[in-house]
Design goal:
Shape: globular
Strand order of the largest sheet: 3-2-1-4-5-6-7
Radius of gyration: 20 Å
Largest sheet: 7 strands, parallel
Strand content: 15-25%
Order of helices and strands: EHEHEHHEHEHEHEHEHHE
Low-confidence stretches: 196-205
Helix content: 40-55%
Mean pLDDT: 81
């Protein structure tokens, strides 16, 4: 019996937090889909992602394309007028490469982050892809200018033929997306990282499980929420002690 096919598209070939998260989340869907992976090659960057995919998914097919280094840089500086104007020409370089891929064979295409979601979404629209497209958000959309948000709303409502799903990595990001796109998009989902490969058993701690230490590992950036953890620890100090929490570590 043939199973549906899922293409997972990565932001980068390094093995960062978003890539590790996606790999473990992909383990959840391995029993339901035949998986393929699309990995970008960036000039000067190392590929630590491919060995991890091969280890976890030995039967999966891995596809590659060269991701323009300029587009990778401007994804964090898209508010610059020069970057915004040059964006179409940079996207054409990606389209020229991925044009050989047969996206119609996939019942679902999953973009793991904004850097890859934009070019993939545009290309799926050009080839009149009619299945499901998942845009996995791991950052707030507030970093992008309102013009960019408006273009996406118009694009989704009037141009794209596929069904778009927004997946958020936190409740806060999900609320941010709903606030900006609830009139254009109907499908918002929240997906946390599984704590192990047996998602159904390990996702929630057992009722008699006592947490004594909490660890937070993150880069020191305003949008990562480190200040909120510190504030929570200060305000709810007595409640945390009553629950048995002794220490909160920030790495």
């Amino acid at each position: 019996m043939n199973r549906d096919k899922l293409l997972i598209c990565f932001n980068h070939s390094t093995l960062g937090g978003a890539e590790r998260s996606m790999l473990y989340q992909a383990c959840i869907f391995e029993g339901e889909f035949d998986l393929d992976f699309l990995v970008p090659k960036i000039s000067g960057g190392q590929d630590h992602l491919t060995p991890s995919i091969e280890k976890l998914f030995p039967n999966a097919r891995i596809l590659y394309f060269n991701y323009p280094k300029r587009l990778f840089r401007i994804s964090r500086q898209i508010s610059s007028l020069l970057n915004f104007v040059s964006l179409p020409f940079t996207l054409l370089k990606i389209f020229f490469q991925i044009r050989v891929l047969n996206f119609s064979q996939y019942q679902m295409v999953w973009a793991n982050g904004n850097k890859i979601a934009l070019p993939i979404m545009l290309w799926l629209t050009l080839v009149r892809y009619k299945e499901g497209f998942i845009w996995h958000h791991r950052d707030y959309f507030s970093f992008y200018p309102r013009l960019f948000e408006g273009l996406i709303r118009i694009f989704v409502r009037r141009v794209a033929a596929f069904k778009l799903y927004f997946v958020a990595n936190s409740l806060s990001v999900k609320h941010d997306l709903e606030k900006k796109f609830k009139k254009a998009i109907d499908n918002f989902f929240l997906l946390y990282n599984p704590s192990g490969l047996d998602f159904s058993k390990d996702f929630y701690p057992k009722s008699n499980y006592q947490i004594k230490k909490i660890g937070v590992m993150s880069m020191m950036a305003p949008w990562k929420g480190i200040h909120q953890v510190s504030l929570m620890a200060k305000i709810y100090q007595n409640e945390l002690k009553a629950l048995g929490v002794e220490k909160i570590y920030i790495y």
